[in-house]
Design goal:
- By secondary structure, this protein is mostly helical.
- It folds into 2 domains: 52 residues; 231 residues, Orthogonal Bundle (MetI-like fold).
- The protein is built from 12 helices and no strands.
- Helix 5 packs across helix 7 and helix 11 runs antiparallel to helix 12.
- The longest helix has 51 residues.
- It is globular, with a radius of gyration of 26 Å.
Amino acid sequence: MGGIMNSTRRFGKIRFRSQSFNEALVAFVFILPSLIGLLAFSILPTVRGIVLSFTNSDMLTRQDFIGLKNYQNLIVDKQFWQSLWITLEYVLLNIPFQTFLALALAVMMARLTKSLFVRGVVLVPYVLPMIIATMVWMTMMDYSFGPMDYFLKLLSLPKLAFLNRDLAIPSLAWINTWRHVGYVTLLLFAGLQAIPKDVYEAAAIDGANEIQLFFSVTLPLLRPVLAYVLVTSSIGAFQVWDSVAVFAVPTGGPGSATRVIFWYITKLAFANFNLGYAATVAVGLFIICLAIAMIQMRLLRANSSDLG
């Protein structure tokens, strides 16, 4: 009798292991295309870029190993630090305002309407290519014939040179906010839909008003989605390039005002043919983005949820 029971247990374990193996194999087959894409377009280029940062490659003929010389030059590179400061200014103008505006729109959509038409309208700017959006806004902001200065004149306000040195980065930040706010709004709106309604009902019974509901219920329960939005938006903002390329080709904008990090990287690689040093600057940007993402995830406790 004992032998039969032991055999049954062994058979059950073998069957369980076989089933687990089959499930793992099926899962691997499903994620294999994504793994191939991740390897080919993210991991290998990253490793290749790090390797290039230790060389003096000119993209055509030379590629000699020079150790840490590029990184030593990076530390004292005034243009790198200037570009980093300009990029940081752009990020600090873009991300807080974009997140605040998207959160306000998402809350209004959740409270006032769940219409598919409204969601589609909110997403329209994101559908436009960044180049077209930038060109349209540059036309609207033109000092000579742009309608924005015309409206300022109607309001008895002084005209503003939106495209000059002082307002170039704020203008770019607004253009990118206008284009991406709809996408961020839908992400936050989806997060709001995951919050149980009975939590709001319980808080309302306890006497909480709308403001208290927002700060005591909505924000804490929305924290994982908000962390994702802030991390991905910040990384994207540090890599801003397409709108700058339209706004600032080829000199980096009025008075070098829009020489962001990516502008500097592309100039080094494709204008100066200094691919090794360009890779070094890119690695520096990668480290900065990684550090900021880790700090944001730590502060926002992105790996936990108050819904549990």
